[in-house]
Queue: 2 jobs
Job 1
Amino acid sequence: MGGVFYRLKMDFINKQTSQFSRILVLVLLSAFLLGTLISNLCFAAQPDRNERAAIMMPLASKTLILDLATAGKRIVAVGWRGHILLSDDDGVNWRQVKVPTQDMLTSIYFADDLRGWAVGHSAVILATEDGGETWKLQSSAPQEERPLFDLIVTGDYGFAIGAYAKFMITQDGGKSWQPSEFVIRQNNDVAYNALDDEEPLPFDYHLNGIARSSTGIYYIAAEAGFMFRSDDGGHTWQELPSPYEGSFFGILSFDGDKLIAYALRGHIFLSENGGQSWKQIETGTTALLTDAARLKDGSIIVTGMGGVILTSVDNGKSFTLQQPNRISLTSIVKTKSDALILAGERGAKLADLPGN
Amino acid sequence: MLSRIIPAAESLVFRNRLLVIIAFALITIFMGYSASHLKIDAGFTKLVPMEHEFMKTYVRHQKEFGGANKLLVALAPKKGDIFTPEFFSAIQKVTEEVFFLPGVDRSRVISIFTPNARFTEVTEEGFAGGSLVPADFSPTPEFLQKVRSNLLKSTHIGRLVAKDFTAALIKTDLMEIDPQTGEKLNLLDVADRLEEIRTKYQTENIDIHIIGFAKVMGDMTDGAARVVLFFGVAFLVTALLVYFYTLSLRRTGVLLGVALIAVVWQLGLLPLMGFGIDPMGILVPFLVFAIAISHGIQMVSTNSAGIFLGKSPLEAAKASFSTLLIPGLTALATDTIGFATIFLIKIRIIQEMAMTAGIGVAVIILTNLILLPVVLSYVSANEKYRGKLKKKAAFFQPIWYKLSSVATRPVAAGIIGLCLLLALLGAWKAGDIKIGDTQAGVPELRPDSRYNLDTAFITKKFAIGLDIMSIFIEGGEADAGVNCENLAEIDDFEWFLSNIDGVVYTVSLAKYLRYANAGWNEGSPFWRVLPTNQPSIASCFLGISSASGLMNADVSVMPIYLFTRDHKAETITRIVAAARKYRDDHPVLSNKLKITMMGNNVGVMAATNEEVQASQMPILFYVYGAVILFCLIAFRSIRAVICILLPLALVSLLGYALMAIMGIGLKVNTLPIVALGVGVGVDYGIYIYASFKSILQRGESFRKAYEITLDITGNGVLVTALSLAIGVATWIWSPLQFQADMGILLTFLFLVNMIGAVFVLPALAAWLLRGENTRNEA
C-alpha cells in the first residue's frame, strides 16, 4: 500500500502535470483513500470470532450457566457464549448484560460489592467495577487453548487457574494480569514445575477449583487426583496426599481446617486436618460433582450433573442424595438474604431445598 | 349460429336413438370392467407441494437423512414398569417384526434391543460403554437390573424408554420405494401388517401404540371405506326425493341410473389414466353423482313440463334436449373449468382431484345431455301421469306464487339489503380464517381416534417431539462439518434458532460435538464448548455415524433439527420467517456454508401452508374467471353475469366465515371445497337464470315469469340442493376429521348456494333486468 502511495505522490510532484491530470490524480488519490477506509470499516465490522461481543438473546438466562457469585444483594451468573446475567431479586428475574466476548465463561469472583472478574475459555479475563453492569476485557489468549476455570483476588494479589496448569496472577488488585508458573514445592524445596526430581516432567494437569480457608490457607482441586495447598498466600503450592485417582472439581473449606473435596463419579472426601488425611464419604451417585456451599444452619450442599443434590447436616460425615430431575447443576450460591440459588444447564433459579 | 347447431344436434341424436343407447351401454360395460381394477393408492408425496423450495430440499436430502415417513411402535405394560421378562420378550419380538416389515430402512431401526442403542459413561480411565441390552442377555433379574443401570447412563431415557420406565419405543423410517421389490412401497400393506403385529403381541398385560404416516394412511383408508355406506345413504335419500319430485318410478330409475353410469365412467377412466383412488379423492365420485343428479333433475323437470303440456315423450325429450343443451353445456363447462383451476395448486392429490373431477363432469355432459333425454324419450307418459303432475302443480302453485314475490322490487330491496349485511359479517369473520392445522396429533383423523390417542400417549410418555423441522447446512465439500469455523457458525445459527418462540429444542452436529467434547473431558460442563482444534474435533467424531442423522456420509451436509411446540400455522410461519431472515442476513456462513430449508414433517407442513396460502387467491380468481367467461358467452349480458356471480361470491365469503367460526383451517383438504362449491352453485344460478330469461322473453310479466321459473326450474334446484345436502351431511359422521369438515362445508355450500340462486338471483334481477324488459308488471 505504501508503494502505491509513494508512486502516486511522486507522479504528482515530479511530473509537470497539467491541471487536468492533477485533478485526476487528486480524484484517484481520494478514491483510493476512501476505498481503504471502507475496506477497513468492513474489516472492523467483521472482527475475529474471539473478539465478538456476546449476543443478547431471550433464552440466555435459560441455558447453560457455569458459575454464580453475589455482588452485594445482586447475583451475577456467567455461562455459555459469554453470557453474563444479573438478578436483583434473588434469582427470579435475570437480565443479560453486554460482555465483550462470546467465549464460554466458567467462573466469576467478586472482591467486594462492585469489583469483580469473570474468566473462561480463550483464557479471557473480564473485569467490572460497577457490580456487573459493564465489563471490560483485560486479557485473552485464544491461540493457547487453555481455558481458565477459577480465580480469586485478595488485596493486591490474586490468581486465576485453568487447563494444563494455566496460572495467571495479578499484583495490583486485579487491574492487570500476567501469565505465571504454577510453582509446586516439594519437602520445602522449591521445585519449579516439576514433580519428579529424576525426570522433571512439567506439571500440565487441569487446575479446576480454588478454596480459601478462614485462616488464609489456599487449596486447589485438580485433575487426576491432584490437590494442592498453599500456606504462603497462593504463591507456591504443596501437593496433598490424594485419596483418589480421578479428577477433583472443587474444595469447600469450613470450620478452620475442615475440607470437603468433591470429584468425578460422585466421589466426596472429607478431611479434618487441612488435607493431610482424607476419608471417603458414601454419596450414592456416580454423577460428576460440580460445586458446594455451606448454609447458615451449618448444613452442606454439593451439586452435581444429572440434577444431583447432596445434603449433609453432620459437617460432611454423611450425605443424603436428592435428584428431583435430571437437569445438570453446576453452581450453588447463598445470597445476602440467605436464599440459595442453583444454576445449571437450564439457567439459574431460587433453590427450593428443604432444611434451608 | 346456435339456432342452426341445436336442431342439427337434436336430429343427429334423436334419429339414432337406439345407436346412442347401445353405444352408451357398451362403453358402460367396458368402464365397469376397468373400474373393477381400481386400486387404492395412498402416497406421501401426493399430499405435499413437491415443487416448493422446502420440498426440493427435503427430497434432495431424504436419502441421507431419512424422511418425514417415520414409524414409532410403543409397548407399555398396563401395570408396573418395563423390567419384566414378559415385556422384554415382547419388545424383542416386536423389534424383530418391525425390522422385517417391507420398506423399513433397516439401518434406522432402533429400540433397546438393537445394537445401535448404546450407552457411554465416563470413568476414571476414560470412556466405557456398550449396548443397552448385553449380547448375552437372558431375562433374569440380574440382567434386567443391568439394563436399567445401562439406561440410566445413556441418553435414551425419554427417547427409547419412557421417563418413568413405563413404556419402550421402537423407532424406524419407511422408505418411499420398497428396496426388495423396487416398487413404490405399499403403505396400506405396511399398515395392515402393523395392525397384525398389534393383534399378535397386545396382551392383557401389554398395550401397543403405533404411530407413523403409514398408519395414518391405513386408518384413513379404513375410515374412507365408510364412504361406501355414506354413498348408499346419499343414494337412498336422493332416490326418495327424486321420486317425490317426478312422481314416477321409471323416471326416478332412469335418472339415478344415468347418474350412476357417469360415476362408473369416471371410476373406469381412473385406471385407464394410471390413477388409483385416494382416501382423499373418494370425494370425487360423490361429487360426480351429485352433479349428475342436479343436471338430470333439470332434464327430467323440463321433460315433465313438456309432457304436462301434452307433448309425446319423444317430442318432450327433443324439446328438453334443445332447451337444456346450452345452459347445460355452460354449467358443465364452467364446472369442468372450475375444477381444472384447482390444478394450479401444486400438490399432486389436489391436481388428481381436479383432473378426475374435471373428467367426471365432462362425462356428465355426455350422459346427461345426450343419454338421458334419449332414454326419457322411451319413457311413455299416460294420462294418469299427467294427472299426477297436474295435481302436484296445483298443490305447489300458491307456494311458487308467494315465493315469486322476491322478484318484486320492494322485497328484492330487502333481500339485497340483508345480503349486504351478511356480506359485511362474512368479510369480518372470514378474516379470522386460519391456514393449516390447529389441532394436536393428526388433523385428518378425529381427535379421539385410536391413532390420535396413541399419539397423545407417546408424546406424554416420551420426551419426543413429533413436530420437527430440519434446516440443512450444506458445506459444498467433503468434511465441511469437521472444520472448527464452520461448526462455530452452525452453533451460532442453532442458538439463534433455539431462541425463536415456538422452538422447544434443537439438535445438531455442533451441539453433539459440544457434549462429546465435555465427554472427552470427564463430562465436565466447563468443556461443553466446540473443540477449537482439529485433533480434538476428530476425536469427538468417534462414535457417531451418518446414521445419527447429524451429518451425511462425507460430512458435507449437517442438518439442524428444530422440535417445535406445535404445528399451528402461526408457530410454523414465525419460525420459518425468522430462519429465512437469518439466511438472508447470512447468505453464506463462514464463506462456504449455505443454509437450505427445510425438511421433516413440520417442514412439509410449512411448504404446504405456503402453497395453500399462495394458491388461495389465484384459485378464486380463476374459478370466478371461468364463471364470468362462460356466463358471458352463454348469455352475452353483463347483467346476467352479475345476477349469477354475486350470490355465488356471497356464498364463498360466508363459507370462509363458517370455516373461521368452526375452526376449520384452510388446508389441502378444504382448499378445493370452495372451488367445488362454486362449481356446484353456478349450476343452480345458470339454470334459473336461463329459464327466467326465456320466460321473460315470452312476454310474461316479471313476477309471473319468476313464478313459472320456480315451477319448472326452481323446483328442481330445491330438490337437487336438498338431496345433495342431505347426502353430504352424512359425512359429518365420518371417522375422518377432514371428511367431516368437508361434509359440513359442502352441506353449507349446497344449501346456501340454492338459497342464493332461488332468492338472491331474482332479487338482483328485479333491479337489474327490469330496465331491459320493456314490459311492466300489470
Note: The domain at 63-350 of chain A is CATH 2.130.10.10 (Methylamine Dehydrogenase; Chain H).
Job 2
Amino acid sequence: MYGGGNVFEATKFDDLQTEDPVKLAEFEARIARGEKIEPNDWMPQLYRKQLIRMIEQHAHSEIIGALPEGTWITRAPGFRRKMAQMAKVQDEVGHAQLLYSAAETLGKTREQMLTDLINGKSKYSNVFNYPAFTWADSNIISWLIDAGAIVNQMANAKGSYGPYSRALERICAEEAFHLKYGHDAVVHMATGTPKQREMIQAALNRWWPPIMTFFGPSDKMSTHTETLMRWKVKMASNDECRQQFLDMYVPKIWELGLTVPDPKLKKNMETGQWEYTEPDWDEFKRVINGDGPCNAERLAVRRTAEERGAWVRRALLNPKAKYVRPLA
Amino acid sequence: MSLTSLDPRVTRLNLPEEMPTIEPKPELDQFETYEAFHQKKEGAAHTYVGPVHAPNEDVAFLFAKEQYSRRFPCVGLWIVRTENVMVTPYSGDGENVYDMMRVEEPAERSAQAEAYEIFHLKKRGKAHTHAGRVMATSYQEALQEARTQFGDKGPIVNVWVVKSKHVLQSAEEDKDMWTTIPEKKYREAIAYKVMDKITKYKEEHKTTAP
C-alpha cells in the first residue's frame, strides 16, 4: 500500500548552479544510460532531498495505512479472512521497514523520520486520515487503495535510485496478493445479499472522493518537475497515474453493477482520457495539514506504540553500539 | 476530552485529543543496522536482501527471518553487522571494479590467515551475491585474492568483503525452521479466484451493465 500524490515542492536546493558541473554531467549521463544510482555515488542535493522526502512519505504511508485495516482483524468475518487480513497488515508494516532503510541510505536516520512523522512534520498518504466505518470500507481500501498504490509503485520501481528499486521489487511482489484479496472481498459482497451490496456500495461512495485525490493534484509543469523526471525520480505525472487507475479499475467496478458517485465520470472516446468532477483540493489541503477526521487518532496511536515500547528498546540497547548507515 | 475512535480499543487508551510535540528520538533508539543475505534454494549462492535494525546479532537474525523469508522461499540466512562490511568503490555498469582499484597497504594485518567472504554486485540496482571464500591476513589481501580467484567473470560493479567470523549463519541442523506449513495459501494471490462469481453475476444481471 502506498500513498501517492507526492507534491514536489521547490526546495532551497533547487538551484543546480551550486552543483559541481562535471559531477552533475557524469551523474546525468549515468541515468541517461539507464544505470542505477547507488548510495555512495555523488548526487545533487535536490536528488537526495526529493528522494528522502518521497521514500520517507511512502514508508510512513505503509505503517499508518496498516492502522485502519489492522483494527478490522478481530472483527473480520470468519477465521480465513482474519488470517488473510493479518498477513496483509504484516506485509504493510514490513514494507515500511524496507522503505525506511532505503531512505536511510540517503542520510536521514530512522529516528529522525519517526520523530518527524509523530510531530506531523512529514506527511503520509492523505487517504488514511479517513475512517473505515465498516468491514466493507476495509475491503474497498484493500482493493482500490492498493490498486492505486500498485500503479504508483510499478512506475517508481523503474526509477533511478538502486535501494528504492530493490525495495519496490519485493513490495510489488507482495502487493499482488493484496490486490486479489481485496478484489475477492469486494466481489463477495457485491454478488452477495442485498444488504451486502448496499454495504459495499456505501463504502465505495465514501471512499471515492479520497481515492480520486490519491495521486495528488495535477502537477505544475515546471523546470523543477522536468529535472526530476529526467533524473527518474518522478516517473509519471499525477494525472497519468490517475488516468491509468481509472482505465484499469472503473470497468471492474461497473461490471459488478456498482456505481461510482460521480455523474461526470466517463471516458472520452476521442481523447482516450477519463473525464471526472475535479476533486475538492481545498479539502485535500485542509486534511493533509492536520484537519481530517482521523489525523489526530492515527498519530496518537503511532506515538503511543512508540512511547510504550521505548523502555524495551532502551533495555536492549547495547552500550557499545555504533550507528552505521545501511549499505544498500 | 479524550480521543474517541470507531475502534473501542483506541478509545479505551484515553489518549488526549491534542498532544505536545515530542523531543527528537535519541540516537540508536532504533538500534544499529545489520545486513541480511538469503539463500533461495539448496546449493544457490547467498544473495543480499536488505538491512534490519536490531539490538544484537541474534535479534537481527529473527527480524531478518521475519522480514525476508516470511513470504518467499528461503533455505538459509546470513547476518552481518553493517559496520563489519568493507565496501569497495562502485564502477559503472559493464566495467570491472577490480581493474580500477589501487592496491593499498593494509592498515591492520592478522598474524595468521583467516577466512573472508566475498560478495559481488554484477549490475547496479541488482543485489550483491556471494562469490566465494578466500584466506587472507587483511581486507586488502582478501580483495587481491578474490580478484585472482573470481575477479575475471564478467562485469563486477562493487565488492563487499566480510570476515567469515563476522557472519552469523543459519545452521544445517536448524533447517526445519524454513519449512512453511502448506495451509498458508490465503496469503497468495493465486488463492483468490473471482472470475466464476463475476461471470455468474453478469449472466444473472445482463441488463445492468452501463
Note: Chain A touches chain B through 75 residues (CB under 8 Å).
